[in-house]
Amino acid sequence: MLSARWRLPLLVVGLQVGLFVLFVLFVTYDEHSDAAGQTNLTDHAHNQLYAIFPLFQDVQVMIFVGFGLLMGFLKKYGYGGIALNFLIAVFSVQWALLVQGWFYHLHRGRIRIGIRNLLGAETACATVMISFGAVLGKTSPVQVLVLALLEVPLFTATEWLVVELLGVKDVGGSVAIHLFACYFGLSVTAVLYRPGLKGGHKDEAPDYHSDKLAMLGTLLLWVFWPSFNSAAAARGDDQHRAVLHTYIGLSSCTMTTFAISSLLDKRGKISLGHLQNAALAGGVAVGSAVDLMLTPAGAFALGSLASIFCTLGFRYLSPFLAKHLKIQDVCGINNLHGIPGFIGAIGGIVTILATPDEAYGAGLYETFPHRAPPPLQATQRGELGLARLVPALQGGAGRSAADQARSQLAGIGVCLGMAVLGGMVTGLVLKLPFLAQPEDEYCFNDDPYFQLPTEGEPKDSCKIVIKNC
Amino acid sequence: MLSARWRLPLLVVGLQVGLFVLFVLFVTYDEHSDAAGQTNLTDHAHNQLYAIFPLFQDVQVMIFVGFGLLMGFLKKYGYGGIALNFLIAVFSVQWALLVQGWFYHLHRGRIRIGIRNLLGAETACATVMISFGAVLGKTSPVQVLVLALLEVPLFTATEWLVVELLGVKDVGGSVAIHLFACYFGLSVTAVLYRPGLKGGHKDEAPDYHSDKLAMLGTLLLWVFWPSFNSAAAARGDDQHRAVLHTYIGLSSCTMTTFAISSLLDKRGKISLGHLQNAALAGGVAVGSAVDLMLTPAGAFALGSLASIFCTLGFRYLSPFLAKHLKIQDVCGINNLHGIPGFIGAIGGIVTILATPDEAYGAGLYETFPHRAPPPLQATQRGELGLARLVPALQGGAGRSAADQARSQLAGIGVCLGMAVLGGMVTGLVLKLPFLAQPEDEYCFNDDPYFQLPTEGEPKDSCKIVIKNC
Amino acid sequence: MLSARWRLPLLVVGLQVGLFVLFVLFVTYDEHSDAAGQTNLTDHAHNQLYAIFPLFQDVQVMIFVGFGLLMGFLKKYGYGGIALNFLIAVFSVQWALLVQGWFYHLHRGRIRIGIRNLLGAETACATVMISFGAVLGKTSPVQVLVLALLEVPLFTATEWLVVELLGVKDVGGSVAIHLFACYFGLSVTAVLYRPGLKGGHKDEAPDYHSDKLAMLGTLLLWVFWPSFNSAAAARGDDQHRAVLHTYIGLSSCTMTTFAISSLLDKRGKISLGHLQNAALAGGVAVGSAVDLMLTPAGAFALGSLASIFCTLGFRYLSPFLAKHLKIQDVCGINNLHGIPGFIGAIGGIVTILATPDEAYGAGLYETFPHRAPPPLQATQRGELGLARLVPALQGGAGRSAADQARSQLAGIGVCLGMAVLGGMVTGLVLKLPFLAQPEDEYCFNDDPYFQLPTEGEPKDSCKIVIKNC
Questions:
Q1: Strand, helix or coil for residue B27
Q2: Cβ of C430: how many Cβ atoms within 10 Å?
Q3: Could you tell me if residue B403 is inside a domain?
């Protein structure tokens, strides 16, 4: 059997060689990055780069820095959290460029890429990061790479089903990103159940410094979440609302977390762990309705609700799931992504049903493309005037608000089905012995994978000195 | 009497319920975020979002990440500094959206909000953060929330008096933000004087790690300060100058701080504490003149001056104030915001008086709206030509440069009066016993408010181990 | 002889007074920041500020925060790394504003500055930071200031020779930034060779916390590198490609680093030090071809190559250079900037030679200004049609692709010559005794230059306690 020492490098080299060949065969520039696609009349100021780049950079900070620091919250698994987040984030983006390219951007056998593809790939990447949270510290680098390898295409297929086929409104991804990633991750961790960690693990905890760095990660995710949630919205007022709602939802959930976390402790002390997670739940919970006419107060309510359930989830549900359903969810993704994802999905449906069409004015079919009349039908109905008024209007499916709500419900179902099934299969694959799953005692520890400073973690070196005295 | 354990959660829940009701009653979308406000002719690329969002995101990083890390500089109050900064920042923005809305954005009984309101609210928020620096670690979470509750409306009123009524030029906020926040905070801390901390407190100091994180906070504030100072400037060359002046002022004050800090130590050693604060003083000191024709050399001079006085203030003035005036200023806000605020205010006046009108060319009345001729007077004087040349010209107050300078002086006076009076009243309110002010020995310590990791702060755990050996 | 205690403050004060005088004499606003440069027809939305500011802010984070944290990786030299990076970054920008102004922006005896000058100055600044990496912890603050004082004009002259005179395509700076800075820095450190550090130094290593902060620095450099590499590209598709290539190059080099680092350790353990550096090598290696039609697969290949050589360099070349060539390269800049710089330079040449002109379509002369026909020749050849098609076309040098490739080669030579000669002279100057070079035992230690917290670095205080028990 191949020694553990060779597995990670060989897998990485194999993946890179494979990806390189696929890049050679498939990847080329899109019309905004191809020099030959410009003419002497091209106004470079309108290059798509300038509309997307600021959002892209914010999302970059979230994925690589924010997530990374948050994943590094364990006292002895700081390198692991930060560096493995980096590893699978980078790989997921590379892989998603290809997979999403095959789904959406294939022209004459070539994938045409530009900045929008990078941004789209980071959405797939976020999904992998979220699922990774369920198995953080319990899986080898080889396992998490295989997880990313399987989750990226499954997410892409699910997103295609949900957003393209069913036409679900889900700009911030409550359904396609958070629900999917959460229940995929929980299924994986359920299959990888470790009876030996039933009573917890001595290293599954932060120390004072790692906790502050994880909080820094949360703060970075918090400040840039409006960019994440608005990136897929239509330009203009839709994107503007997405920023407002995300900010307001994050605000109310942060405040509420301080209250609930304090209430749940018998001495009234706040848990930084609650804050690191529940302060972000509002960003998840406004996801499906984020560009709709949710109203500021609606965003406020969704944020508060998400925080309440998220914090209660950490206190009561996670221990219950671990004990009775054998779901060991290291980062509590069910609390931050699962429950708030459901709140977001329902929030979207309620907003769709409760808002009168007039509230959207001329933008109704821009915000809800599937509610536009179908091309033929439009002509039959004599709605030619509409086409003249909005020349770029694309034919839709003529959905009513109730139709749209039904699609949203269907989307939730499809998403959960794909996530649970896909997660279970992935979990079984990850159990294959040559993927080098670490033994229980080496969980939550950098030592098996990283060279540690000789005067490593302060606590340890103190102990060593003391033994000598 | 209500146990201390319930006070924070009940206050937070009460505030959130109250704010939610007010959001329901008052808050709606502005013309850039309301779907029904767009027509088929709206060019979404001109949505206000795109002009403001990059500045807003930079200010977000400053408020939540930069300030948070800087406030976390104390070795045992890292959670407190970072998390309470987060708490009151979030609350201040929520509250300021309403208060500033009632002052400035009320249309038919509804507050119309968009991204500009979020940015405006973060200005109020910055004021609260600054004042918080004076009482950091000596106040309970309940007290700081009450502080924010009182300071936000007082700041809004002061800003309205200074900027709207008196027409003070103060784009970077030397007067309305820094002077106000500083003397408000100092008045609060003077009222909350603790004789027991006269000789200092063993925990009122950083350790090696918290000092590096605080320095990271300073660096983030430093790099994004040009966005903060330019956010309120007129678009175009005004905003361009604001960026240049802020950068140059920060540069010269940083260099100067290295020199003065080294000079003040008898071994020539630099204080990281000086650097964390005085390296930012230039951003304060260019505040009032930041969009004027200050000249690059003028910004350079203001930055250097601010650093000299700021660093000397830490060395000599802060101990003097603590000893003789009973003003215990934990973060030294008098040095970073008070003195540089005065330098900035005077710098603004000198710039206004010393720059000939010709230097502003056609932009004179854009930079100084109150210097434009009053509408009627313009017609009388036969200046119709001007109105034809600059069609959007709004009538002003026909001020001369000297008039403008007098208004600036008046603004300083109003600001100081409001700050000192408001701060004293706030201090008295904070003394109310049910606000749970911590006892002296629990100051600068996370333990009363936060769940700490069992293997908490390295130093402590070492001591514990040693006792056993 | 002047006591060491006075040298830094006096040098800083002297430099600041000198710079202030030069600012007064020379520096004024450019046409985008000067109020009098606007007319009533100026569209402020087209102010250059808005095209450059987002890139500028990203580069700011890289220089001050990213580089700072990365330089702070040593366990006892964290203040030094972060704060001295801050000191010389600020000074380099101030100084480069003047030096680059005299070279490029002098109009009637005045340097006209705007945001583009700040961005340009940060390029010079990056060069100083890179070179600083070679002597980190072995030089006094006085020495590094003198290094910056000398390197900034030398870099400016070199860049002028390479980019302006020879017309080298080098938008991401593989040649003019990375090769120059690296071999300048290596020459300096070779002259400053310390036989006493031949066997290493006990403090030349990170600890667990400093390593995580340095990794945070790397992540910030990683996410913002696309801004750095695209800042000097032509607007539109050129800038778009620069972003794509940088991102793809960074991705492949990051993945490859995980593999190679693991392969190089006999237990298969990954080195965080490798990751902190080699994960960035792809950004260097795409530098010269970053805006060309390199193809996504080309960027992928350059990134992988750079990582392989960078990681091998850390393992084999750096010890060899230290032992046999007396080049003690603290941060391994030869591995991150030297070797990948060569890969980038060659990558540029190959891309120029291998890409047919048709691939650039109408943008050929925009991407390669020196390949445009010379003004006179154009007329002679009857190419007036071209001038009509592209009215803004500036006459070039009529270069063929092979001509351009020859210029690139010449640029590499000029750059290396300037760097090695300039670095040796600078090294000799830094040896002057009054520059207060620290003794070997005080290297890599904050204590000589910074006030340390009384309960300083955790490890030390443990030892002290233990001695008592």
A1: strand
A2: 22
A3: yes
Average pLDDT rounded to a whole number, residues B145-173: 96
- For residue B64, what are the contacts with CB-CB under 8 A and spacing of at least 6? A219, A222, A223, B85, B86, B89
- Tokens for B173, please give them: 């906020």
Q: Closest to B53 (Cβ–Cβ): which among A211, A243, A363? A: A243
Chain C CB within 8 Å of residue B290 CB: no
Q: What is the identity of the amino acid at A292? A: L
Q: Which residue of B has its CA nearest to C118?
A: B244
- Contact of C72 with C136, CB cutoff 8 Å: no
Q: Considering the entire predicted model, what is its pTM? A: 0.95
Domain residues for the domain of B335 are 154-373+396-432
Express each pLDDT in A138-172 by its tens digit: 999 999 999 999 999 999 999 999 999 999 999 99
Tell me the pLDDT of chain A averaged across its residues. 91
CA-based angle B170:C119:C214, to the nearest 5? 100
- CA atoms of C350 and C345, how far apart (whole Å): 9
**Percentage of chain B with pLDDT > 90?**
84
Do residues B250 and B283 lie in contact, with contact meaning Cβ atoms separated by under 8 Å?
A: yes
Task: Read off the tokens for A365.
Answer: 């079919």
From chain B, the residues in CB contact with A358 under 8 A are 36
Q: What angle do CA C12, C15, C21 make, to 5 degrees?
A: 140
What is residue A385's predicted lDDT score, i.e. its pLDDT?
Answer: 55
Domain count across chain A? 1
> At which residue do the structure tokens 């109003």 appear?
B414
| A150: its two tokens | 């399987």
Would you call B251 and C32 a contact, using CB atoms and an 8 Å cutoff? Answer: no
Instruction: Check CB contact under 8 Å for B219 and C86.
Output: yes
Counting DSSP H helices and E strands in chain B, the numbers are 20, 3
Within a domain: B265: yes
Query: For residue A381, what pLDDT band results from cuts at 50, 70 and 90?
Result: low
Does some domain include residue C390? no
SS3 (DSSP) at C446: coil
CA atoms C253, C259, C263, C269: torsion sign:
positive
Residues with Cβ within 8 Å of A143's Cβ and at least 6 positions away in sequence, in order, are A135, A430, A435, A436, A437
**Angle in degrees, CA A111, A114, A120, rounded to 5:** 85
pLDDT at residue C377 tops 60: no
Pair A275, B86: CB distance under 8 Å: yes
C-alpha of B365 from chain center: 27
**ipTM of the complex in this document:** 0.94
Which are the contacts of B251, defined by CB distance < 8 A and separation ≥ 6? B282, B300, B303, C90, C93, C94
Model confidence at A460, pLDDT cuts 50, 70, 90, reads very low
CA distances to B58, B88, B223, C14 from C20, in Å: 29, 40, 22, 10
Query: Is residue C25 situated within a structural domain?
Result: no
pLDDT at C407: 96
Residue type, B224: F
Pick from C33, C69, C72: CB nearest B240: C33
CA angle at residue A196 from A191 to A199, to 5 degrees?
Answer: 110
Decide if C219 touches B, using CB distance below 8 A: no
- Residue-by-residue DSSP string for A226-262: HHHHHTTSPTTHHHHHHHHHHHHHHHHHHHHHHHHHH
Please count the CA atoms within 13 angstroms of the CA of B382 that sit on its side-chain side: 0
**Rounded mean pLDDT of chain C?**
91
CATH number of the domain that residue B334 is part of: 1.10.3430.10
